[in-house]
Amino acid sequence: MLKLFDPNVTEQEVSSVKEVLLSHNWASGAGLDKVKEFEEEFCKYLGAKAVVTVNSGTAALHLALSLLFPKGHDILVPSFWRDAMRHGRIKENRRLTQPNNN
């Protein structure tokens, strides 16, 4: 098996996940303000005014497409691209164009 990464999971991370799971606020940890806490800490780390968290990479791609590219514009992508981009462009009415490599 090819190992792509070696995650380093600490006891603090295990404890935090366990806390959310036992709270029954699995979708977002909202009852524990974990999402808000993460966004605030991430803002500080980035030096940003605000951040937005979403529930998946696909949702992040949809959001990025809607913010970065006006509707009807072509988006140039490599020949190797993910299905999530295809779904995002369909949802956001954008065209993905692969360059002709001939």
Describe the structure.
By secondary structure, the chain is mainly α. It folds into 2 domains: about 25-55, no CATH class; about 55-95, no CATH class. Helix content is about 45%, strand content about 5%. The chain has helices at about 10-25, 35-45, 55-70, 85-90; strands at about 75, 95. It has a two-stranded parallel sheet with strand order 1-2. α4 links the parallel β1 (about 75) and β2 (about 95). α3 crosses α4 (about 85-90). It is extended, with a radius of gyration of 18 Å. The mean pLDDT is about 75.
TL;DR?
This protein is mainly alpha-helical and 102 residues long. It is 47% helix and 6% strand.
- The assigned structural class equals mainly alpha
Q: How does the overall form come out from the CA principal axes?
A: extended
SSE string: HHHEHE
Q: Uncertain runs with pLDDT below 50, 5 residues or more?
A: none
Q: How many helices does DSSP assign?
A: 4
* End-to-end separation: 35 Å
Proportion of residues in extended strands: 5-15%
Task: State Rg.
Answer: 18 Å
Strand order across the biggest sheet? 1-2
Number of strands: 2
Number of domain modules: 2
Largest sheet, in brief, is: 2 strands, parallel
Helix fraction by DSSP (H/I, runs of at least 4)? 40-55%
